[in-house]
Amino acid sequence: MVDRVIEKVRAGERVNSAEALELYRSAPTPILGQLADAIRLRKHPDGVVTYIIDRNVNYTNVCVAKCNFCAFYREVGSSEGYVLGFDELFRKIDDTIAVGGVQLLLQGGHNPDLPLTWYEDLFRAVKQRYPEFKLHALSPPEVIHLSRLSQLPVPVIIDRLIAAGLDSVPGGGAEILVDRVRTLLHCYGKATSDEWLDVMRHAHRAGLRTTATMMYGTVETDVERIEHMMRLRDLQDETGGFTAFITWSFQPDHTELGASQHITEATGVDYLRTLALSRIVLDNFDNLQASWVTQGGKVGQLSLAYGANDMGSVMIEENVVRAAGASYCMDELEIVRNIEDAGFVAKRRNMHYELLGDPIYLERDVPRMLELAVAREAGDTHVPEELMNYPARSRAAKQLRVVPRNPVS
Ligand code: SF4
Question: How far apart are CA 54 and CA 313, in angstroms?
Answer without folding.
Answer: 6
